[in-house]
């Protein structure tokens, strides 16, 4: 028989592959006609086999056919690489025309490696490889490597084909405490409305996410003008003392706080007033407070309304002065053209107000409100959350009266009424206690206890402490000339509220700025040409893992920690750590697969390795 050329095998095998494509088209469009086409292919093969069995065998076992099929398989692989595989329809329409997308679907080119035509092509190649291999029969010692290499390719393809046809993929949406004995099937990475039943259950006991250590950076965005987009940012490590060059400017990290907070501290000030730091100590915590010997800032209420403490630099001279100190007070600060004055007033009394007016202190309410039915002023309660004083201005010349409410919390609010003589008023309410003790404590360590307008007792502080049943007050620091200062510090070593202070220097000018990682908007400089942000560079998790238990027939048979590279394997199913939800710490996404051909593929690679070693060892 005359040997056929390589071109003959390319032509005939090409015609066969075109028929495979025709079968794929019929399968996707007209299923009954497809079955007829498949029967016709089988009958044609039987016809040629009966007519000339040797010619069929020679054709299928030809090395030239192998060359042609390998070339066509390579072309198919290239097609599968260039054409998008297993993505959503919207993505295909973004890259291809509608007509080309329909063509792709007709021949299943969007899933090349699972298409009918590709599996038939690979099957034909496998038959050719087997027949070519067994042409070397019988097997000799030197031929063992050759046989293993060729058979391994067949075994690998066989295993891959089994996985493609009978493999299962799915997904489980897990929450801690849940047990699942089924999973949602997926195809082309999309969830199907189908479930696959398991003959066992899997329970999620715990889920945890491990993050990389925080790495906070100052991100500096720059642009040439405000009508252009910002360029790629500078990423500057928020390390105190570091100086960075940004274009023609410099940025220095002055301070970095992991957990930014502020606290009031007492500092010496030659222009200040007498002050004291007081610590309220219980068994579990300590609270500090600063108080000054000035109206309104000299007193503080004890826990649960047990009493009131008033700080004075000097001890009251007598009982009358102590009782006066303990009384509640109404302080008016009056600013007029002719001068300013501060009055400590009492209800029902009249005082000189301005050049043309007197003022009568008529009424007081601790929590100002207006009754909606009667329209009258009432107090919502005894808590002084909105203290207000009712004043009556009396004209010195004609006795004309003007009424006015003044508010401590809203000094500018006047119900649309003008204060006489163009003056302004500020009102301060200094509270006291009824039926509860008032303790007047001085820097001289003296304590005067006043109850309901009478001095009850006097005593000395011991160890600077005023002791009660469940707590004590410690007068920690006295200073005759002091003021309040806000001190910045990190409340903890955890990154709860990261804040950075920087110095920006450009064109001989400098700006000191402070911004937080919690800021939703950037801090801008140079009329919007520079934007600064503080962000953590390490926002992605380092690892996330699910602690699961396998329950088979009501018994806990296996515990496992599923991680990205450590799946749970049970009864041929693989459970992979796939996803998580940063907003839900109890959620874990688990992908499931069953790959019946995987061990056959492993066997094929093992045979390929052994065959390669033997082929090298027994040189031919």
TrEMBL record:
Protein name listed in UniProt: ResB-like domain-containing protein
InterPro entries (alphabetical): Cyt_c_bgen_Ccs1/CcsB/ResB, ResB-like_domain
Organism: Thermotomaculum hydrothermale
Any one of the GO BP annotations: cytochrome complex assembly
GO cellular component, one term: membrane
Keywords (A to Z) from UniProt: Cytochrome c-type biogenesis, Membrane, Transmembrane, Transmembrane helix
Membrane topology reported for the UniProt record: Multi-pass membrane protein
Domain ResB-like: 64-140, 142-214, 514-581
